[in-house]
Amino acid sequence: MAEDLRYVVKKVVGEENFIDMSPNRSNNYCCGGGGGFLQAGYPEERRQYGKMKADQILATGAPYCITPCHNCHAQVHDLSDIRGHAWETLHLWTLICLSLGILGENEREYLGEDLKNVAVYGA
To answer: Which of 3, 56, 59, 103 has CB 3.0 to 4.6 Å from 97, enough for a Cys bridge?
Structure first.
């Protein structure tokens, strides 16, 4: 599964723009937002657990972190937002829709300034 996701991401963003985390694949770190933890009411504990993921993302130097699910997106975005880190958090489907030219103007909230106007017709 990890290889399938990497294949899709590389096709969407270009292999030259893909930066993998370390460790990765089945050894990658959990973001700490899944399994109901995101809604459990313990935000400081969730953020403390997620610090390892935040440090892992920062180590890549990447301007974007692509997430495959809603819980990961919410947790990774929160980890960036709460500490003022320098990455944008995107759903994988957002990038797929952007690459196809079908991402609506109202679905661009998490895009950085470099991508907000990509394939926006009539703008």
So the answer is: 103
